[in-house]
From TrEMBL:
This protein's pathway: Protein modification; protein glycosylation
Record's bilayer topology term: Multi-pass membrane protein
The keyword rRNA-binding is annotated on this UniProt entry: no
Protein name listed in UniProt: Dol-P-Glc:Glc(2)Man(9)GlcNAc(2)-PP-Dol alpha-1,2-glucosyltransferase
Enzyme class, first EC level, given as a word: transferase
Superkingdom of this protein's organism: Eukaryota
Function: Dol-P-Glc:Glc(2)Man(9)GlcNAc(2)-PP-Dol alpha-1,2-glucosyltransferase that operates in the biosynthetic pathway of dolichol-linked oligosaccharides, the glycan precursors employed in protein asparagine (N)-glycosylation. The assembly of dolichol-linked oligosaccharides begins on the cytosolic side of the endoplasmic reticulum membrane and finishes in its lumen. The sequential addition of sugars to dolichol pyrophosphate produces dolichol-linked oligosaccharides containing fourteen sugars, including two GlcNAcs, nine mannoses and three glucoses.
Source organism of this protein record: Urochloa decumbens
Annotated keywords: Endoplasmic reticulum, Glycosyltransferase, Membrane, Signal, Transferase, Transmembrane, Transmembrane helix
Amino acid sequence: MGRLVVAAAVAAWAIPLAALVNCVVPEPYMDEIFHIPQAQQYCRGDFLTWDPMITTPPGLYYVSLGYVVSFFPVAWMFRLAETFDVLCSTAALRSTNVVMAIVCAVLFHDLLLCIRPGIGERKATTYAILVALYPVHWFFTFLYYTDVASLAAVLAMYLFCLKKQFWISAMFGAFSILFRQTNVIWIIFFAANGAISYLQELYSKDNVSHENIEATHQPNKAVSGRDNKTASQGLRRRRINSPISKKVVVSESSKVYNSLAEEVCDICLKLWNSKCDVLIAFAPFAFVMAAFVAFIIWNGGIVLGAKEAHVVSPHFAQFMYFSLVSAVALLPWHFTPSRVLVLFHLFGKNKTCSLLAILMGLGLSFIAVHFFSIAHPYLLADNRHYTFYFWRKVIQLNWMMRYMLIPLYVYSWFSTMNILGKSQTRVWVLSFVLSVALVLVPAPLVEFRYYTIPFVILVLHFPVIGNGKLLALGLLYAAADLFTLVMFLFRPFHWEHEPGTQRFMW
């Protein structure tokens, strides 16, 4: 029932608004001038022609082709040329992302129930609708960009990985790379953490089996003796009550480590001892990674076209921008008096280590901002994007502003890691931070679209908040959505040096 409510809610606004967008902006706009003609080539059955300005693989075009063919199979099969313009019109291709937005919301709903089984259908439905309203994701629902379909593929990969259906997960992972190459990082992230979870289950089963055998051979042995023996053998179990039938076993995942190093060493030891089982289970991901490496060697890089404008760069400041943007988008979790007090008390427990961590965070952030802030030519020249104004009106307001934001960057990352650390292991949090860095740092262009996938992962793993806060955040998202849509549709402008109508967008 929850899935139907989510799908109906997203469709209720996406379909009429998509019609409005197609009515006001019927022609391809911005990057659509590359994507739509390319998709129309595929629609005609021409899979060899490629626009050299397109940087991403043709995953979106395959989805659109399948989407169109599913509605008009006979027309496409017999190559009825007069139907091409109708089948693969701008409006029809854009509607692909409307469907993908509905799929994203349903996948998020299922993921939340999988990660937090006790959350309940109603709460999961509310969260899914909230994420569907996230302004950047919401805006590109109505345009023919790769972002919405890319998110859908990544969420599907994550869902099947959690369900231990690794072949299907790897398949969606491979498909996600066809939308955006950097999704390979999320394949590694999900596979690595899936392998750790798989190891914990293996050890839990082995330990339970060992204890059952032990209980069979020594049924009359005292509980304290069994506990001592188990402890000496390194089995991580706790028992309450002496009768075997009432024994409570604490899973391997609940193991509390004293440090990150201890956790890493324990995982590495288990991985080595169970390497054959893990390699067999996660072989599909290895095949995908091997294929991706072969692609990079064949292509001479990760970007397909326009390579000179998308050179891999050490853009560490992008990592800082994400922390602030995501924290602002998740306002009720980060910027509340209770959250500030939690962090204050946390730092007060060990003042020396906390002071060193803060100083290190501030120092590294200063280095990132001072030496690794990249102003891409597209960012400086294109006033159609909100990032242009973010850069000019915020980052470059004056020479001190970029440094004044450093404490906010550090606070946002500390708050994020603290929140994640309450429900995830240190290794999971560290791997997430590294994944975000690997996705964002090489990108020289500041694009809020690049933040969507890690943002959604954060929402999935953040603690549940009250309905009042969710409603307030949803209203803020809706207000931002309405503003950006009105600006895009009804506040066009013109450039003196270039013909055509220009529009504001993310």
